[in-house]
């Protein structure tokens, strides 16, 4: 069975409703038993109860449209800690944490996220030498200049 991605997006939008959650990713595998994977996020992250609620709502809509006989696997989840940030709305809750940026021009920057706006991010870059670390004044990077951004996980 082939699932229409655009129809799934509409169903998902209905399933989210008035919630502040937003879509980060939607994939549908082409296999004997298709797997629909929905990755959601929100201003304060995404809890397991929210995942379960959206999953139930989306499952109900899929069954209404494709029939109860439709065979598929549905996973509603949040982005993993190791996943790149892919939506500007993901950045504000990470202010104060360390980000690793890969820019479109091939350069890489790492430092503390000091601000996130709808246009881009401000980073206090940390330069490491053999004997010391130097923190540079905050610099602004528009989202269009960012190829990839990841939160640096620290276990200190």
Automatic annotation (TrEMBL):
The keyword Signal does not apply. It holds the Pfam family RimP_N. Keywords: Cytoplasm, Ribosome biogenesis. Residues 13-82 form the Ribosome maturation factor RimP N-terminal domain. Residues 85-155 form the Ribosome maturation factor RimP C-terminal domain. It is found in: Cytoplasm. It comes from the Bacteria. InterPro entries: Ribosome_maturation_RimP, RimP_C, RimP_N, RimP_N_sf. Belongs to the RimP family. Required for maturation of 30S ribosomal subunits. PANTHER family: RIBOSOME MATURATION FACTOR RIMP. This is Ribosome maturation factor RimP. It comes from Hymenobacter saemangeumensis. The gene is rimP.
């Amino acid at each position: 069975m082939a699932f229409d991605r655009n129809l799934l997006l509409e169903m998902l939008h209905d399933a989210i409703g008035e919630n502040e959650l937003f879509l980060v990713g939607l994939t549908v595998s082409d296999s004997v038993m298709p797997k629909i994977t929905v990755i959601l996020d929100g201003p304060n992250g995404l809890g397991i109860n929210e995942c379960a609620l959206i999953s139930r709502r989306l499952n109900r809509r899929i069954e209404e449209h494709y029939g109860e006989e439709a065979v598929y696997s549905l996973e509603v989840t949040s982005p993993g800690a190791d996943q790149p940030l892919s939506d500007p709305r993901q950045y504000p809750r990470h202010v104060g944490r360390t980000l690793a940026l890969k820019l479109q021009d091939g350069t890489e920057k790492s430092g503390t996220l000091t601000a996130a706006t709808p246009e881009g991010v401000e980073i206090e870059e940390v330069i490491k030498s053999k004997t010391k670390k130097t923190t540079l004044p905050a610099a602004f990077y528009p989202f269009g200049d960012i190829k990839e951004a990841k939160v640096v996980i620290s276990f200190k």
